[in-house]
Structure formats: C-alpha cells, structure tokens
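Readers of this paper often ask what the protein records in our data store actually look like. Such a record has a labelled line for the sequence and another for the backbone structure tokens. The tokens are whole numbers drawn from a learned vocabulary of local backbone shapes. We quote a single record here, exactly as it is kept in our systems:
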Amino acid sequence: MEGNALALSHFRTRVGSPLLLSADASSAARKSSGRSRASRYDTGAPPSRAGRGRVWKRDEPEASSRRAGITGVPKLNPKVSNKGAGTNKVPVVNFEVSHHRAVAAVRLLRAEKGKAFVDLLNETANDSGENEMGYVERTLGFSTRHLDDRDIRLVTVIVAGTVRWKRYIDYLIMSLCSDEKVFSKMEPLLLQILRIGFFEILKLNVPAYAVVDENVRLAKVALRPGAGNMVNAILRKLLSLKETDSLPLPKVEGDDRAQARALSIIYSHPVWMVRRWIRFLGKEEALKLMNWNNSDPYFSLRVNTANGYTRDDLVNRLEDLQVHYEKSIMDEFVRIREGMQAVLQAGLLKEGMCAVQDESAGFVVSVVDPQPGESIMDCCAAPGGKTLFMASRLAGQGKIWALDINKGRLRILMEAAKCHNLDDIITDVHGDLRLYAKESTAKYDKVLLDTPCSGLGVLSKRADLRWNRQFEDLEELTCLQDELLDSASSLVKPGGVLIYSTCSIDHEENENRVTAFVQRHPEFTLEGVHGYVPAEFITDEGFYSSSPTKHSLDGAFGARLVRSTH
C-alpha cells in the first residue's frame, strides 16, 4: 500500500493525481491568478482566431513557412525568442503553439516509454522542471515558455485523462482511420497529439475550433504540414460523429468474455480487470468502480498535530487561500478536489502544517492504534505517510523504526520527518525485510506490514497503473506478500500485534493472504478491528476494508493479528 505524506520539496504522489509542482524558483514566485479549474480552459488561441472549427488559412502548407520548421533565431518570426543568445546552445522558444499541449504531448510520449510519471511534471528539489523543458526541446525541436499554475493544471488534466481513457480513445482513432495499418504504423508523437485532441473533444468539451486549430498547428510545427492535415481530417470526422451521436462504439452483447471486451473499451480498462470485477463484484458494482477510476480524484490533507496545528488552523488557511474543502469523518483530515497548487505555493506542506494523505491510509494507522511508549516497526515504510502519522500519535513517547529496501526513499522519509518535528521518534533502517528478519533479534510491540500490492484500490489517482498491471502480477505479488508476512511475524513480541495492510480491493491479496498466514502460523490469532475504525468499514470477518464505490475513498485493507504470549 502506498502512503503519501511528504514535505513539499519531496512531494511525489504515488497514486495518480492531477498535481504538478512548479518548475523553478521563478515559477514559485509567480502569483496565480486564481484557482485552477479544468472548466476555465485556456484554448491557447486569441479571440481573433474565433471561428467555427475551421483550420485557419495561415495553417495551410502554402502559408506555413513561418512555423512549419522552427530552425533559426528570431528573425524568422517575432514570436520566436532567442533569450539564451550568447550561450553554447541557443534555446529556440516557440510562442505560437499551445504550450501546455506541447508539454502534454511530450509527457505522454515519455510516460508510454516508462520514463516519466503521469501525475508529476517536476520537482523543485532536483530541478526536474528544467529537465522537463529539456525533453520538450529535444523531442519537438523547440521549447515552450515556462508554465504557470493554470498551465500546469491543464497539463495534468490532459495527461492523466488521456492516459485513463487511452483504450477508448485508441479504439475510436483506429475506427476513424482509413485503414487499420494507418493506426498501427502511426508515428508516436502524431498519435499523442491525436489522443489529446480526442480527449479534449470527448471528455473536456473544449470548443471545437480551439481543439482543431491548436492540435493541427502543433502537428505541423512539431512534425510537418502533412501531419497537421491528417490531424485536421480525423478530428473533424470525430466532431461530425459526436454531433450526430454516432460514435462507433462496440455493443455489449454475446458471452461473458465478449461483453467484458466491449466494456473494457467503453470504460477504458484492461479486459482482465473487467472480467475479474464482474465475477467477484457483479456487473453493476464493476461499472461503478470503473466510473470512479475514470473520475478526477480528490486529495485529502492531514493536519500535523505534532507541530501543534489543529484542523481548524488548516481550515482557516484554506479559506484564506480560497480553496474549497470538506471536513472528513477523521478528525485530522480535510478533502479538496481543486486548489492543490495554491496549497503548495502557500507552503503549507513545506512548513509542516499538513501532509497529503488519503483517509483510507489514515484508517490503517487507526487499525495499528499507536500508543505512547510503544516500539513499532514499519516494514515497508517509504515514502512514509503512515510512518509520520503513527509517530504523531505517539505524543513524543515511544519509537518507530522505518525499514525500506530503497535508500533514496528512506532519505526522503527522514527529511519529511524532520519537517514534521518527528525525526527524534523515527529511526530509518535500510534493508530487505526478509534478510533483516533473519539477522535481527529485536522484537517490537507492533509491526506494520504495508505490503507491496497491485494498487487496484487507487486507480483513480494512479492514471497509468491500470495499463502497467497484468493478471500474472497477482500471482507474483501474493507470493511476495506471503514471504513478507512470514518475515514480519518474526519481529513481533509475544503478545504483540502484527498489522497487515494493502491498497488493493482484491480478495486474493487481502483476506486470502491473512487466512493462509494464520494456517501457517497458529501462534497468531485474528483480532477484529471493532473499536478502531467506524463500523461501516468493518467486514463480517472483522477486517478493515474501504471501498471507492461505497465510501468514496481509496480502496484499502487492514487486519490485526495478535501473537500468543507463549
């Protein structure tokens, strides 16, 4: 399961989020004109271009000499800047293309190759914002101007949404191509530009003239005039089909397998997930789950009580920032759906007032029930969300050992602990749990195993995760989970408690793992979570379980296992 509670300079949501950090110190200093909203979409076109979807005359090949190939310095076009003149490499900045679409296209290219995160543009901590613009320049042959907060929001919405709806969009693109080979042999950048256009038309309802004009221009400048003409033809065909409500979608009919294939296209999920959810949840619940996964996620902020803050303090700051919020059923949490950039820019995370963490993870900490004076081992701790929350509940008394195999992520965890004034309570341990358990003689009052899992409960925040998971992964993960459970159990004192948790909604990773563990280890007894979490989150077997469709939270699971005293 994946926790999220980091200092600003190290904030990286591991669950697909519409969140990006500003590129550098200068962008951090710029003031936002207001809260970012996808509905206030910047078309990138001045009012003088307004029309009814036609591609403007200056975009035609005979009129494109100014833009089709940005190969020189500003004399070619007063809208192209050579701000870096005099340096070894002259950056060529193109002011005509839609800058957020250009960045989104490159990010989609890199994400598809597994070289970029869908949910994060850059981090001020390692100058990756500057690196991002470097990727844009190397890929497109020119740079764009720096993105402001509103642009960043647009990039996030476009990238995350296009990735979520990739199967649905690709099916339509292929249907609208003259030949299936046209789609299969389409160059990657052209495909990403088309995907962006389709997503904007189908899911964002951006004005037609803006979608066609800007994506055609991007294709012509970044590729060639003929590519722009192809984008123009396909996007116009899509608009025509949308207006007549005649999109060529598959019919949900036939046997279970055929229906699952059709639903996997319509709801843009892998077939194996659709079949599995229909089998175990029922068709109606499976459709609700896929709709949840395709929706824009909210974020929860947990106030840092260890620094002396209260939820009222956090609420007052959010009101000052004009960020809409909802109070959570958990006392330390508030929810926001928009305005995360304002929270980051205001320094609420950096100053240690709060952390980004879903309530589903907070309930896992409630299942652990940390008490002052206890010794607690967090076995797969990084990036540290639950570690910090547990430490804050120790009230300065007790100790937490945070073990993780990734040394870099442990370093981030400890820097976050320092920001939250919890570094004197938390000790980091770098190593593999399986080896550590064999070599260590230490025993702990409580051991939390927040185990690596499929992440099927957090697909709304991890837009790309659905495409990176295969059915075969479940078997590998369950074997790993069994190994880690066996190792973690050896660290529990007699009479102590082992807590097993995941961010999965799959019974194979949850209930079945606990049942198999108890059969292998009769010295452990399952203890119900009654009294630790609200009754609505407790299963008939006494496990903690949060459901996206039932509770509007990330999916998560937790179990308490008590070791006998002899």
